Amino acid sequence: MDQKANPQLPIIDFTEDSLYPGSSSWILTSNEVRHAFEEYGCFVAVYDKIKMQMNKDVFRASRELFDLPLETKVKNVSDNIYYGYLKLPMIPLYESLGIRNATTSDGIRSFSNIMFPSGNDHFCKTMHLHANQLSELEQMVARMVFESYGVEKHYESYAKIMTYLLRVMKYRLPQKGETNVGAHVHTDKSFITILHEDQAGGIEIRTKDNEWIAMKIPPYCYLVMAGDALLAWSNDKIHSAFHQVIIRGEKERYSLGLFSFVNGIIEAPEELVDEEHPRIYKPFHHYDLLDFYAKDDDHKTECTMKAYRL
Ligand SMILES: O=C(O)CCC(=O)C(=O)O
Ligand SMILES: [Fe+2]
């Protein structure tokens, strides 16, 4: 079949028990990850360590959050647009809440204390556990990327300062005459993003050939995307995928993303720089990239990284 007529994202299997650092399946998978990131900027990870019941619980918890009164949700304030409660007039279908430092119990608890002042232990336990499960997949992928470029010696210093934002997102159905755009075309500002959804579909990824792949992320699968920070770290070897959300179906979309951010300087390792591939981006603090993005009021720049540091 002509691939171009029906482009598909690479699917990478993370379910094997033999997938541990150094094993032959680990090395093979690392190369698949690198190839997928270079060609598509993303891939579908099949990952069965997160049980179906957990997915049901997190999306139930998401609904509970979005059902809270607006005056409660807006209390999730942040100095950066990427965190906090987000609802913008130009994308009326979209609403999201960010949970900062979601892999730590303090991070979850301080968010939960604002949303549920009389306490919600179940919410805290579910979200904390889930953020950690997703971060395990993120760490596996990041380690594989470093290894497959032969720069594993730099991995630990990045892993030590990685922070995680969990964002829960809701897209209501459009009313008659209303736009069906849920999220405009963009690349993520993260190092790596892990997305999953409650079976409504709507995410669309643009290939390098400018073809759109619209997909529903299947159960036990996660869409793993390279963000702008990983693109910069790789000295442009890795592609950060352009994507958008369009609500075409009959079902509201609930999705959840774990975004990793380096609390420190991003810099391409020497090994990825040579005469043929000179350093493209000056070293930068990852949070400064986020601040730069936050100042771009209309979010018109498709690729923030290029605008920020070329
Ligand atoms: O709803 C989704 O799955 C995608 C959201 C997204 O692209 C983002 O938050 O960066
Ligand atoms: Fe995104």
From TrEMBL:
InterPro entries found in the cross-reference section: DIOX_N, IPNS-like_FE2OG_OXY, IPNS-like_sf, Iron_ascorbate_oxido_reductase, Oxoglu/Fe-dep_dioxygenase_dom
Sequence ranges assigned to domain Fe2OG dioxygenase in this UniProt record: 160-264
GO molecular function, one term: oxidoreductase activity, acting on paired donors, with incorporation or reduction of molecular oxygen
Keywords annotated in UniProt: Dioxygenase, Iron, Metal-binding, Oxidoreductase
Keyword Iron: yes
General function of this protein: Probable 2-oxoglutarate-dependent dioxygenase that may be involved in glucosinolates biosynthesis. May play a role in the production of aliphatic glucosinolates.
Family: Belongs to the iron/ascorbate-dependent oxidoreductase family.
Protein name as it appears in the record: Fe2OG dioxygenase domain-containing protein
Protein source organism: Heracleum sosnowskyi
